[in-house]
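Troubleshooting entry. The earlier prediction with zinc ion gave an output that would not parse, so I re-checked the input for stray whitespace and re-submitted. Clean input:
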Amino acid sequence: MAISKILLYYRFTPVADPKAVMLWQRDLCESLGLRGRILVSEHGINGTVGGDIDACKRYIRKTRDYPGFHDMEFKWSEGGAEDFPKLSVKVRDEIVAFGAPGELKVDEDGVVGGGVHLSPEEVNELVDARGDDVVFFDGRNAMEAQIGRFRDAVVPDVATTHDFIGEIESGKYDWMKDRPVVTYCTGGVRCEVLSTLMKNRGFGEVYQLDGGIVRYGEKFGNKGLWEGSLYVFDKRMHVEFGEDYTELGHCIHCDAATNNFINCVNEDTCRKQALVCETCAAGVATAHCGRPDCAEVAAELARA
Ligand SMILES: [Zn+2]
Ligand SMILES: [Zn+2]
């Protein structure tokens, strides 16, 4: 059986003609049978694709032919084309949607004025040296943090990345402005932008976890400062770094420990994902996101 893989990557670099890069990337992926999502903007590229391992290797070689992407790093993980519904390659104002395309400045070295990059080892060293003074700031959607986060992390109240600017301007986090703040996200891309936005708003000592949770987990498994499962945006829904992980999440219906996200059964009008344990998810009446109207639809479906 052929081995397949998933690639995760991004690069901030000036892209003179995003549309041309988009068309080239789409052709390349189609010809290699890769599926996934790629966004291109004048600030760079952000993608995750899956497919045959040899096709992935070819994709990396070809993509690195573009001068700006020459030293782009690719993270490998388990999975394949079947983890994505289709191939989607698009031009956007931003490769991560913070709603601040005009604020971001990039040059050949990446984002200008972002937080200091720390390797997983350097994050641990910072915590060893500065102790409880260090604040971990979750750069993901609050839902993702329900099943995994850094120890004692601050989890902002955001449903989408668009909500971050309002959050960090709200005053709620001003106590962190003179503390060392380590931002982290899945693979690092969101923190490239978030750390810049925070610095621009008066946070004085901002770091970003280089390579994100993915690299930290590969390095330290469940023995470091990371706890729980990592939410991922494909059919796998979550991944763990070894068997000895803790289930941090709780089922919204019965409160059992779980890391199981489901799509709400009211799929006509609700796009929500919710933490529902496998037992509750198996019963139609409890396979909903918790909203009253969804609960009603679920009850009707269960009676039918
Ligand atoms: Zn349950
Ligand atoms: Zn729902």
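This one parsed fine. The chain has a mean pLDDT of 96.
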